[in-house]
Amino acid sequence: xxxxxxxxxxxxxxxxxxxxxxxxxxxxxxxxxxRVDEGLSEYFPDMRRAIIxxxxxxxxxxxxxxxxxxxxxxxxxxxxxxxxxxxxxxxRNFFEKARxxxxxxxxxxxxxxRNISPVWLRNLVTPVLKGAGFVCPIYERHKYESFLSNxxxxxxxxxxxxxxxxxxxxxxxxxxxxxxxxYLDPPFRSEMVDNSGADIWMADLALASRLPIVxxxxxxxxxxxxxxxxxxxxxxxxxxxxxIFDLVQVNDTYWQQVKWSKPTALSGTDLQEVETPLPPAxxxxxxxxxxxxxxxxxxxxxxxxxxxxxxxxxxxxxRSIGLQHFSFPTQTWMTILFDTMVAYRGMSISExxxxxDGLLPLYVGKVLSYVKKAWRMSLQQAEEYIENECMTxxxxxxxxxxxxxxxxxx
Length: 410
Fold this sequence. Notes:
The protein has about 400 residues and is α/β, with parallel strands linked by helices.
């Protein structure tokens, strides 16, 4: 339940409800709310519309900026209690409020998107009104954007759940009442989910739901507030990866039955390409290599214990190559992720933390390998490279099933 709520229009029901999670977003929320309202008004004029600012008790005037935004849709403001943050808590409040409004379609949009277009609302909402359970956007992305998705989320989700959903951690989603029921009574929830693991949690539960899933083409890159690439990486990485591994256990009966992946339906294929330049890539191979080497000795014994002598020797070989010819083989990376999943299941909380912390420098090494391989590739060529890596994961799925089953017996 939200700690605080404002509902000036005393709205009790709506057909489409859009939630905008915030934490001190006074400089961005008004534009986002106005553009959302434009999209709802233009494409769904005959439906009852509501926009909810789901806030972390911001102190910078976010609430006032939200209510000052122009628009015709009803506006509501709900907040966590003071000192209680995290996107997941905002999203949970949104679920609770949406249930009482009894909508046909729900959307979550991040507050700091600088180029949000009204047509994005059409492409997200329309599939839900036509029966989709969950809709995930596809934004144009630089080949050096979203390394976590490229290296871990997309290959694992595609391999495990058999759904080719390219941008599961996009941060923006649409879903219907059946998916809302799952979110309100989930098979799993954690402190990580309440914080930055919320996006992974939502997408993961949708992939395992057996409900129809659609990808909405947005026709442009998503331009948002620039965040430091390394500043909060350890926390974001730990909460995202920890959430994935937690849900792997929850959904193991389902994913062990999945053989291969299938394409996912698309929405918005009529959208004209928008001439919006992709944001410049802020990638330094030297810095990535430095971070890979920094923690190598610190975690090597852990890697040797978890992954065994063959992988450990391969990691030593990778380290010795040097920056110029650095490469992290897909097969080695896949084995590491699969073995981490199995080891994670049988560990205590403190052991899991060390395991995930130890995976981070290996992830940085994998990112560096991709950066070097894709340096002269076009966006399309880089995408084909990632697709080929995903096929390696799928072809080796019997390995993870065998390891998982062996771990259960052990």
